[in-house]
Write a structure and sequence with these properties.
It is built from twelve helices and eight strands. The protein is an alpha/beta fold.
């Protein structure tokens, strides 16, 4: 029996959404999924953007013959498109082949999601940007929503619309991630964003040049550059979501220093 099919447990469903494209939502989804898996959790990341999929590119998993496109076109089962990704995270890619997109029926997504819920601890859905039909399907499927917003007016305005729709659909909003922060005077602060959206800011991710470098290699940032500013912020976010405690680099250095001192005293 397929080891996925033999498991019977319901997942925590978290959708990562954004009001507009270009916020860095998929990069966060990919790296957050890996970070959650690094805490020992069983995680599946689903790319629900069947039109503009790129999750598999960020994770270095492009070129899979079977993807969510084939599931939505009735050519295979959802169990056939669950792939092992970095650090043990499992990935359901949406597919980037345009020729398979025309046969995809978004109505089959509901059935696919219901099956995935029995196969993992955390189902992390990377929703399409905006409020189109596919995005609404991904939002309505979730129990919890995380909004990705950039510190500018247009992104904040679109995030506010997405928040209102998510609440009307009965979703619990965990909070907002303020992404690509450069700490300039032209930016809206995290405090202001929290006040306008009326939800907590659960992470502030700095602009990080290592993100582009990691994407060139097809590696998740949290693995390629684990100590980069954005990686540390994403791992803190994963810890927050799980209610775990993360050992900060400065604390780790202090612990090592004490261990070295202790060893030297014994000599």
């Amino acid at each position: 029996m397929n080891n996925y099919m033999s498991r019977k447990k319901m997942a925590r469903i978290i959708t990562v959404a954004s009001g507009k494209g270009g916020t860095g939502k998929t990069t966060i989804s990919a790296n957050l999924g890996v970070a959650l898996a690094q805490f020992g959790r069983d995680v599946i990341i689903l790319d629900a953007d069947i039109e503009m999929a790129n999750l598999e590119l960020i994770l270095g998993m492009e070129g899979r013959e079977l993807t969510l496109h084939e599931v939505l076109s009735g050519k295979c089962d959802i169990h056939d498109v669950i792939y092992q990704g970095p650090s043990g995270v499992k990935v359901v890619p949406a597919g980037i082949k345009l020729e398979t997109l025309k046969d995809a029926d978004p109505e089959r997504l509901t059935q696919a999601l219901s099956e995935l819920l029995t196969l993992t601890e955390i189902l992390l859905i990377d929703a399409p940007a905006g409020l189109g039909k596919d995005a609404l399907a991904a939002i309505s499927a979730a129990e919890e929503i995380i909004l990705v917003v950039n510190p500018d007016v247009s992104s904040l305005s679109d995030a506010l619309k997405t928040k209102v729709v998510a609440q009307k659909l009965g979703c619990k909003i965990l909070g907002a991630i303020v992404n690509r922060v450069e700490n300039t005077q032209a930016e809206i602060t995290a405090e202001e964003i929290s006040a306008i959206l009326e939800i907590p800011v659960i992470a502030v991710i700095p602009e990080d040049r290592n993100i582009k470098i990691a994407s060139i290699y097809g590696d998740p940032l949290v693995l390629k550059f684990p100590n980069s500013p954005a990686s540390i912020a994403i791992k803190r976010l994963a810890a927050t979501i799980l209610g775990e405690r993360i050992v900060e680099p400065a604390e780790r250095a202090s612990i090592l220093k004490k261990l070295v001192k202790g060893l030297l005293r014994r000599k």
